[in-house]
Amino acid sequence: MQLLQMNFKWVEEDPKEILQSVCECVERTSEKLIQLNINISNIKAIGVTNQRETTLVWDKVTGEPLYNAILWLDLRTQSTVEKLIKKTPGKNKNHLKDKTGLPISTYFSALKLRWLMDNIESVAEAVQTNRAVFGTVDSWLIWCLTGGKNGGVHCTDVTNASRTMLFNIHTMQWDPELCKYFDVPIEILPEVRSSSEIYGYMSSGSLVGVPISGCLGDQSAALVGQMCFKDGQTKNTYGTGCFMLKNTGVMPVMSDHGLLTTVAYKLGRDQPVYYALEGSVAIAGAVVRWLKDNLGIIKSSSDIEKLAAAAGTSYGCYFVPAFSGLYAPYWEPSARGIICGLTQFTNSSHLAFAALEAVCFQTREVLDAMNQDSGVPLSQLQVDGGMTSNKLLMQLQADILCIPVVRPSMSETTALGAAMAAGAAEGVCVWTINPDGMTSVTSEKYQPQINPDESEFRYTRWKKAVQKAMNWETVEPVPGDHN
Asked: I need a surface site. Which of 96, 216, 262, 459 has the fewest CB within 10 A?
């Protein structure tokens, strides 16, 4: 997928390209199965998983997107966030947290939707004429795949709805007061369903007639794929960003240390809702892509392990990749990226090592917050996602956390979680999800190998670097500043 970046704050994708990539994936997978003499009629269900918060608005009559998808890490609403926080009692960014579990932040969908309604004429007009519909990526895909303008199903699941700031995580419904707060008409929102039920059927292509019966935001899907069904079980996913989720059971737990309270899953219409504490880090794998695309010090993302290993240390260099501000536990949109501790000796290998360390330090900050909220320190961390194939990163993570890191042999647990939800849906019933009857997945374990004092020293230096990155970007232009 091509990221469309108009400037350092705006990050978008083409909704049609998103849809095309999914359709192409379905067709190529079907072709490959046929080549392997596997009958595609054996495919009984389809699950959808997606980056959450990314915001789309389209015309339900023509089926056309009214603007590009605004991505979760987009920062264009920073000034709106600051204005809203200033208006709240005590200038409190957690003003809506009791209902949503979330701070007022550029991260979530409501502010992106508000920006579209205020700034894109075609969106405002479509809202006024009752042609506009809003959705996160799951809603857009399900609507298109089930027929689009010809009867497509406009829905989302509870996990994605819980990331909009328009959804009450206690009543499990769109909240009229929240919609009024952001001035969003409730009529444009999708119907909220469970994470495992038949939403509709594929309307075209090789899998026409196959039910779409699983829908989970990517981090919830990874939690399910990691079999974290019991209270206290925790996973950390390393992708574009880094996301740690801890299952807190059927009661939402509010964090006092900068974490989010979110819906983990609801695996069936008549099944209970499970909640999670979440620590969200905006930049993880994205820092590797930055080193590749912006600095050109590696040719492919996989090269970073070899480059960093050549140094084996950052040589006192610390990298805070706050390209989109800082998420958990700070929620500071004015922070910006910083590299400090540079000397004449610093080279590209040290910088690559510092970038990998940055991912690990950010995870440590989130884990510390999670341990403080729960009062029960985690004894090991289950990990998944594309970056976990980097063995140096996994060893660094164990060293910096001072606990073992456990990586499943099948690291793409996000896809597995969506498939599990789809296959367990009523009317599909390929399998049942019984937390007590789950077989444990094969895994690889990384043990800490450095002295805890050294780990603590490096972490303390990192925290010092984070403070240097704070309050960097001002909303009001500074005289003579033309950035």
From this structure: 459
Taking the C-alpha atoms of residue 89 and residue 83, their distance in angstroms, rounded to an integer, is 12
What span, in angstroms and rounded, lies between the C-alpha atoms of 452 and 43? 49
What is the distance between the terminal CA atoms of the chain, rounded to a whole angstrom? 27
pLDDT digits (tens, 9 = 90+) for 293-351: 999 999 998 999 999 999 999 999 999 999 988 999 998 888 999 999 999 999 999 99
Q: How far apart are CA 58 and CA 438, in angstroms?
A: 41
Distance CA(211)–CA(43), nearest Å, equals 10
134 with 123: CB under 8 angstroms?
A: no
Q: What single letter denotes the amino acid at residue 323? A: F
Q: Could you please report the per-residue DSSP string of 379-430?
A: S-EEEESGGGG-HHHHHHHHHHHTS-EEEESS--HHHHHHHHHHHHSTTT-S
* R_g of the chain computed on alpha carbons: 22
Strands (DSSP E) contained in 300-342 are 318-320, 338-340
Q: Before 479, cis peptide (omega within 30)?
A: no
- Asked if pLDDT for residue 43 goes beyond 70, the answer is yes
Label residue 411 by pLDDT band (50, 70, 90). confident
Lowest pLDDT segment from 4-8, 90-94, 200-204:
4-8
Residue 73's nearest CA partner among 285, 362, 261 is 285
The answer to whether residues 17 and 2 touch, using CB atoms and an 8 Å cutoff, is yes
Long-range (24+ apart) CB contacts under 8 A made by 177-182 are 177/99, 178/96, 178/99, 178/100, 178/110, 181/96, 182/110, 182/111, 182/113, 182/114
Give exposure, 173-193, as e/b (b: 16+ Cβ within 10 Å).
Answer: ebbeebbebbebeeebbbebb
Q: How far is CA 231 from the centre of its chain?
A: 21
Strands (E), 297-355: 318-320, 338-340
**Number of C-beta neighbours around residue 39 at 10 A:** 8
CA distance 199 to 228: 25
What number of other Cβ atoms are within 10 A of residue 41's Cβ? Answer: 9
Residue 65: DSSP 8-state: B
Question: Is residue 212 within 8 Å of residue 200, measured between CB atoms?
Answer: yes
